[in-house]
């Protein structure tokens, strides 16, 4: 990098900082905070304000609709953002007060120390790296450990408020009465709260203690706004970042992350495999209000120059510590790829498609030894609990096509992940389980059932699954179908897929499309499970649609800009947004308008009630 | 229209004719025909040719993959197309030979005759309108009538060959052995064939006779290539056309139809509501190789100047005959919107959203009389059977939002549609049933179950359903999720939804996206039900993907152009299409490449078989 390039990058970051939260604001929305039991516990929420409904009888108020907000400080127009400084360390006091961690005088990993001292990467380095924190000797600082001791941490209270989204209050507010009606859910044996009042810090604690949910929250990521991943909470989504083959600039990576947050990703996985992943990761974590996940074996492999056989436990261990001290919140670890399972993939149509899985398979075969992640699993747990990094136990043998779904290789590995879950839980380390991939519709349910039974209801985290292989270019959709279904069946987090899947690297528009697709799939799953209050936003939007409140319809959408631009493509005039008709039918011929007449007529005649009665009594003709 | 504009339109049509089938060809594909029992029975099929696989042991042939082809003559590069002339009347000899129809000396409908003589629309008129055909007095010319008499029509043989897609032959071809493997389906009590050999003309006849399937094929649409809609066949999709509020030119409408066929729509509904719908419809039908459906009440309403109360049975009847003699293959008729059901919608969140439903509701209330479509249903059946127009019994009370799903209004109407199905079947008239709309995931299954039981397994034809209301701009996806599920449960045809749904009129790109979304949803349903051979294309594409045959991956895709352009956005070089790596991982770090090494290693050691055995025997360590 030339001096000029460095200066340019620095200016870009400053530019981005200046207006990032202004540019990313949503229309007619306000960032509010739910106050917790202590002053520094403030949970962000977005409220969407609506226009009044104008009727013959006058104005009718449409109350504001709260929506879950993943934007962090970027979603708060009053926040001063400085990407070079990083986000404020919200959780620092919580960590300090627990008094079970030490601030280390220097980084524990050899690689981390080397990079910190490397003059060649000085220009890329984040300037305000704080000293790392680690559990005191003999201490266990995981959320699961606290939960099992009956301790409700601020993190648990935070997620309780966040999940509840003040719906408990709204249930007691007459304005929301009709809007809060919803269909009964079907939850396949999940223990969902049935009323917002039940979403309490104690409920969160119990779910964490039982291993049914996790709060990925590394003690070295104090900037994090805690969130929860579990079958009995809102379904979450993950978006991926990664500079891969094409090198992108720091600014680009940070901007891509903020862009993902804006559209609503709940966690971000940094899957970079380039040269400066250590430095890029620091920038990302310091600016991330959501949990960051990684696949440490990718970086370990980089360190061997790409030679899988040269991987060693020591090298991997150093990488885990390096990343844990940067603040990574969850690690994908492919410890279930056992030597004896590898040949089970030989007759598959597409073999091993997981990168981590194929690296470990290659290592196992080359050394004719058991996977070192499996044999060193207890030592990995020791690291995880010293920083509270959560496991995302990787499905290295997941199917890469419809044909290979649900085969012996896949389910053998899943059973081993169950064994490792039990082991991790003996260390009070938080665990989620990764799942496929490519599965035809009728075989998705079996994936969920097997996971629940073999992995003791640890949260399931799946990639799609894609329900057919024949639509490259549309795999956000083929996988969104599978994702909505498996979310309904009980999957806690859905890893997004973009339209470029299998074809190329996603650009910003692909990321947006991928995230919105997964937001709608996760929401469809929440509705189907019967999450309390899930239908509020649907009801509000549909009421707005029926009443021709076009602007409210846009505002309540997952993607207001796209909704508005699609509307404007046909009827761009500003007047059309308040008109009592739309482009589909025109002003004269409008079913919604006719319906309003039907409704007025029925009301005038008192017919609605009578008709229900008559039909129920089997009356033949309405008189 | 000025003379200049007319001349311009005419030139456009000529231009479009000239190269329409060349422009719309698919890469590396060939149009072939399956020869039936008579020379004029030739069933179109597209074959996709693949490259060889290059291995250390030499070349391995990848056989051509047959795919269902809706393109008609437009998919045959050797066909001479003249849009002003219309397609050749393939079925004419079949109709003549049956000897049960008369060629009428003039149009039977008053409106048809008026338009034919109207000098103001002369310039828009299709030049080669043939004289209409009608059943001889006392004759019934429906496919259901023939089927129930044990007659296998050429139409039935055609669809048997079309559905079977020569998979019976491929099952006996060693090259396809591995590619034809597929997962067991779950079909919820459907009577699907379990082997391609079972897809016979006699099987088709039985399904038609039982009312479980229909072949929409008006005797005045001899250009039609017959297709079948039924739960025990491939799931079909419908795409909509319509010039609505914005007037589009004839050329544009015809081009949009051909565009839809190219992407694979199985039927087209012409939902136009403009001034020249009679003339436009003629152009569309004469150039349509697929069934055309309409909602005749739309045109009837136009004739009243948009005043629902002024609709009369006589006006509607004339419209039915007008359209039947043009060749419309199925009519949406909202005969289940009964007067007593209308007030059931008054307390809904979004009332009545079906245009046809709201027109009929308004009429019923204004006159305080029962729906004239219901009271004149037998007379409608008399018209249907004289031309073999199929019923698509409209769901005028379908829910317009999640909140209103599965309510009393909806299911009351559905039960009435069942009653009407039984009545239509007494006339041997073919019937399908329209379904919703907006339904949360957990309540979709009930829609299918209710339909099967109340409507005696008549084919179900649904719009989506959308599984959430919060994603305008992405409703092709919210509805594609519902569509894949309800298709799996047994729905026979899925009406597409474009990204512009609820917002504006779809442009060509929206139509493409909507159709491909529904093609993949229908295919996911075929896989899930276990339709024989459905997985062939998935397997072929995945094998191509695994072997880095990029071009074959594109060719086998539902949308080869998009797949290729997405690939090229990252790696545009021509060499990258034959490279053994892709942009996601780069040349060094490729899971597929590593897998190939694992496979070679395992093969060399004879490990695959041993490992399966060891794992099955519960061996602890592979030696």
TrEMBL record, chains A, B:
Q: Which residues bind [4Fe-4S] cluster?
A: 582, 585, 590
Q: What does this protein do?
A: Catalyzes the synthesis of the hydroxymethylpyrimidine phosphate (HMP-P) moiety of thiamine from aminoimidazole ribotide (AIR) in a radical S-adenosyl-L-methionine (SAM)-dependent reaction.
Q: Which HAMAP family match?
A: ThiC
Q: Does the keyword Metal-binding apply?
A: yes
Q: A GO molecular function for this record?
A: phosphomethylpyrimidine synthase activity
Q: Which residues bind substrate?
A: 240, 269, 298, 334, 354-356, 395-398, 434, 461
Q: In which pathway does it act?
A: Cofactor biosynthesis; thiamine diphosphate biosynthesis
Q: What family is this protein classified in?
A: Belongs to the ThiC family.
The positions annotated for binding Zn(2+) are: 438, 502
Q: How is the cofactor bound?
A: Binds 1 [4Fe-4S] cluster per subunit. The cluster is coordinated with 3 cysteines and an exchangeable S-adenosyl-L-methionine.
Self-association and partners: Homodimer.
Q: Which PANTHER family match?
A: PHOSPHOMETHYLPYRIMIDINE SYNTHASE, CHLOROPLASTIC, THIAMINE BIOSYNTHESIS PROTEIN THIC
Instruction: State its cofactor.
Output: [4Fe-4S] cluster
E.C. designation(s): 4.1.99.17
Sorted alphabetically, the keyword list is:
4Fe-4S, Iron, Iron-sulfur, Lyase, Metal-binding, S-adenosyl-L-methionine, Thiamine biosynthesis, Zinc
Q: Which reaction does it catalyse?
A: 5-amino-1-(5-phospho-beta-D-ribosyl)imidazole + S-adenosyl-L-methionine = 4-amino-2-methyl-5-(phosphooxymethyl)pyrimidine + CO + 5'-deoxyadenosine + formate + L-methionine + 3 H(+)
Q: What range(s) does the ThiC-associated domain occupy?
A: 26-101
Pfam families given for it? ThiC-associated, ThiC_Rad_SAM
Write the protein's name: Phosphomethylpyrimidine synthase
